[in-house]
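Lab manual, section 2.4: Encoding a predicted structure.

Procedure: take the sequence of the chain (237 residues), apply the prediction step described in section 2.3, and record the output as structure tokens. A sample record is shown.
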Amino acid sequence: MAFWKKRRKDAALFHKASIGGDAGRFLAPELTSALASDAVVGVVLNTIDDALDSGQQSQRTVWSLGDITYLRELLVAARSYACPVVLVADHGHIIDRGRVTPAADGGGSARWRPDTDAGDGEVVLSGPRVLEGDGTITAPWHEDIRYVARRAGYHGGASLAEITALVLVLLPSKELAPPATGNRCPGNRPHPPGGRPPPRHLSRCPKPAPKAPRNPRGDRRSPRVGRTKSCSAPTTW
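Recorded output:
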């Protein structure tokens, strides 16, 4: 909220009980009014975390639009008000598949403890961005370690699934999209000054196959030349 106030933008945040509406309404009137205004609106949907804590997730690994409470209604409302939507995950999680080995309770959370004696499958994390444990914690990078009683899943550790935060931008119409850059290979796009160049295997498009020489009869039936797949830009870069 303070971030937007510094930029002279109104902002509103809705969480849990403030999202749902009364009888006959999917969304609260205050929320729909905020969406209709010029304010930046934030809505916290905690469906997955709640499912992990209550054990409702079981072995589920895929979440659809209908599984996230209020997500479909929010997208419909945002589209009706021509609002762009930014979907952001604050963290990922791992699933308990029945093979997790509990560790001694270190007084922290499901996947971190306030110690510096990292063991097998653990790593010590420290710095100004570590807000717990006086700036230093131990977290497991291996998925088979937990520090609490068994649940459907856990988060807070250092595995790739937990530290990955995805961002998805949705626009109500293609007219609001930035100008298209064309179907170019990643290697043809200049990387930012001081940034790293693209990986070697993406540094250039494959060369097109040479044209087959004409045979004395004037056609191109021989020799046969292998085809090269075209290089298309990735969906994200």
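Check your result against the sample. The beta strands are 11-15, 40-44, 85-88, 94-95, 101-102, 122-126, 136-140, 145-146, 153-154, 167-170.
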